[in-house]
Amino acid sequence: MISVIVARRLISLQGEIVDAACVNTSADRQVTPSTSASGDSVLLVQRSFDASFRPDLVGKQACIGFNGTDFKAVDCAATGTQFVSLVGGALKSGTACQSGHDGAAQLTVDSTGTKCVGVTLTTVTPTAP
């Protein structure tokens, strides 16, 4: 299994994926392409969460999901989740894709899929969450 660092991607306080100024191999910056129990292509978030940060993800495997407006950390086992995966070098969920980032460094998402941007990948050995 490989793990990739989607360059400069971190999880914000609200759980959205954000662009950060630092890039390294820390576990909270890694996502690992995988397949969910239901057969969906997913990106596993290589970090754990505590109750003060994301109580809904304590003790759970987190994936990147799409809630209709944002890409954010979600429970991989949740039903009805629209997962984000790496498709052709871009972060995508259905037709939605990452289109850049805003002034607060949060990823912007184009729901039409016409303004996708690529991501820089770095392959590393997976780090335990």
What can be said about this structure in brief?
The protein has strands spanning 3-6, 9-11, 17-19, 30-35, 41-45, 62-66, 71-75, 82-83, 85-87, 90-93, 96-101, 107-110, 121-124. It is mainly beta and 129 residues long.
Structure overview:
The chain has 129 residues and is mostly beta strands. It is built from no helices and 13 strands. The radius of gyration is 13 Å and the shape is globular.
Share of helix among residues? under 10%
The biggest sheet amounts to:
4 strands, antiparallel
Count the E strands: 13
Mass-distribution shape: globular
Question: What are the main properties of this structure?
Answer:
129 residues, 4-stranded antiparallel beta sheet, 0% helix
Spell out the blueprint of helices and strands.
Elements (H helix, E strand, L loop, with lengths): L2 E4 L2 E3 L5 E3 L10 E6 L5 E5 L16 E5 L4 E5 L6 E2 L1 E3 L2 E4 L2 E6 L5 E4 L10 E4 L5
Antiparallel strand pairs: 1-4, 1-13, 2-3, 4-5, 6-7, 6-8, 9-10, 10-11, 11-12
